[in-house]
């Protein structure tokens, strides 16, 4: 079954004028790896997803079909208050947290 990722990978690869073989060469893979991604049989690791996005000049969100996704409003009161602190105080708090 083709996933949104599989469809988008193929779309952006073609927009860039790349063959599966050329894209695979950039990743140091065989062309069958790209064919498997585009058919939905396999999915890349997170690091390879990032590399694919860089090579194709798109965001990982674009590859995953997450463009235009609305993010929830911040609901973490601690984080909201932390972000209101001066940067100097944020740094001190961050250092203290990592010492714990």
The best one-word shape is: elongated
Write out the CATH superfamily name of the largest domain. lambda repressor-like DNA-binding domains
Mean pLDDT across all amino acids: 87
Q: What is the CATH class name of the largest domain?
A: Mainly Alpha
| Structural domain tally | 2
Tally of DSSP β-strands? 0
The CATH topology name of the largest domain reads: 434 Repressor (Amino-terminal Domain)
Structural class computed from helices and strand pairing: mainly alpha
Q: Can you name the CATH architecture of the largest domain? A: Orthogonal Bundle
What does this structure look like?
By secondary structure, the protein is mainly α. It has two domains: 61 residues, lambda repressor-like DNA-binding domains (434 Repressor (Amino-terminal Domain), Orthogonal Bundle); 30 residues. Helices cover 66% and strands 0% of the residues. It is built from seven helices and no strands. Helix 2 crosses helix 3. The protein starts with a helix and ends with a helix. 11% of the residues are buried. The mean pLDDT is 87.
